[in-house]
Amino acid sequence: MSKQEKLLTGKNVVLGIQHLFAMFGATILVASVTGLNPLVTLFSAGVGTLIFHFITKKMVPVFLGSSFAFISALQTLTGWNDGNVTKEGIAAAGGAVIMAGVIYLLFALIVYLFGTDIIKKVFPPVVTGPIIIVIGIHLSPFAIADASANWWVALFVIAVIVITMMFTKGFFKLVPILIGFAAGYVLCYILDLAITTNFVNVAAISESPWLSFKAISEGNFFTLPKFRWDAILLLSPIAIVTVVEHIGDITANGSVVGKDFYKEPGLHRTLIGDGIATMLAGTIGGPPNTTYSENTGVLAVTRNYNPAVLRIAAVFAIILSVFGKFGAMLGAIPTPVKGGMCMILYGMIASVGLRTLINAELDFSHSRNLLIVALILVTGIGISVAGGIPIGNVTLSGVFVAALTGIILNLALPKDI
User: Which of 292, 301, 266, 341 is nearest to 55 (CA)?
Assistant: First the structure.
């Protein structure tokens, strides 16, 4: 290998690590606020990304990380909302995640047979925008509950994240959530030492092994899925929203790179890659995967569009996943730190929905647009607050009803009202 080749290899490794940090905070956070194993989450993100690249002919510079859209459903299924995460709950969530991956494959088949226009017709911004808003607002009470464990710590975390986002440049601007997490964690540890609070579970960290190989060999690392209809109906329909997000992310990624990935390797291939990666995650107890716009942002900043760099990041994610001590530290995130982070993140989810509506330049003087958005918001938020709609042994979530409402109204209402 020549000196130049070695230099290029070293550069790609550094860029790969940067991509790892860009996705790291959000990916781990999903596990941390749902009761899933952070190391399994990291492993499934890394392996899922490699699967995606294989299916898309190694052409699309994308990283697959944990999807925020499924947080609420995962929290319900794992037992997080009740303060009692169980292996049975994680297994039920895994079965539902697999079925969410199947929905990706169904959409891939539709795109392959009929083209991309049908997806845009069924899920225009007037439908997807308010659904994303519903997801963010539904999550907000859980963030407030965690932050109320100690508002001073939560506000400190929020302040660090805001300052990092607004006043830093380069690498630090890409990882504000990670920096806020680290700062809050350190603050809680100092408070534990200074005034004998009990924010950080130091015992759990010290007792955990450095490596996870023993847990893997004993079957205590991965959680095999179980299929329950109530879990499937609660979680899987959310994939309808993330499929639309996927389409938007692939469009944005192609715009940054200067290529039309709809044509080559094809949108059906990217959907298949995302779907199979999600099914793998569900099989081992991880959250659904989705394309990460954070990494597309890194592409735009660095102007290095080599897909191999994203595969390097995926390999690093897999390597990190075997360190048990690292996973225990992530699992012991203090409650007010999580609250502060989630207040920002859940608000951002809702803001993305607003941005979707604004970018589409929807005219709300038209009764049609007003009706669709209004009924999605009312059904989604109202049913979520009420705890869902029980039908026999199954409870329909607010997000599911909101999505169904939006789809029906969009297809049924005439365009000229």
Answer: 266
Instruction: Compute the distance between CA of residue 36 and CA of residue 364 in angstroms, rounded to an integer.
Output: 41
Q: What is the pTM of this model?
A: 0.69
Q: With contact defined as beta carbons under 8 Å apart, do 341 and 175 qualify?
A: no
Phi, psi dihedral angles at 332 (to 5 degrees) = -100, 25
Paired tokens of 35: 């009761």
What does the alpha-carbon distance between residue 249 and residue 229 come to, in Å, rounded to a whole number? 30
**75 alpha-carbon distance from chain centroid:** 13
Spans of all domains in the chain: 3-412
Between CA 333 and CA 233 the distance in angstroms is: 30
Nearest to 403 by CA among 138, 128, 110, 125: 128
* Residues 73-119: tens digit of each pLDDT: 898 889 887 778 888 999 999 999 999 999 999 999 999 998 877 77
- Running DSSP on this structure, what letter comes out for residue 223? -
> Which residues are bridge partners to 289 per DSSP?
66
DSSP 33: T
Q: Which of 17, 20, 29, 105 is nearest to 66 (CA)?
A: 29
Q: Please name the helix (run of DSSP H) or strand (run of DSSP E) that holds residue 395, with its range, or none.
A: strand 394-396
Count of other CB atoms within 10 angstroms of residue 172? 13
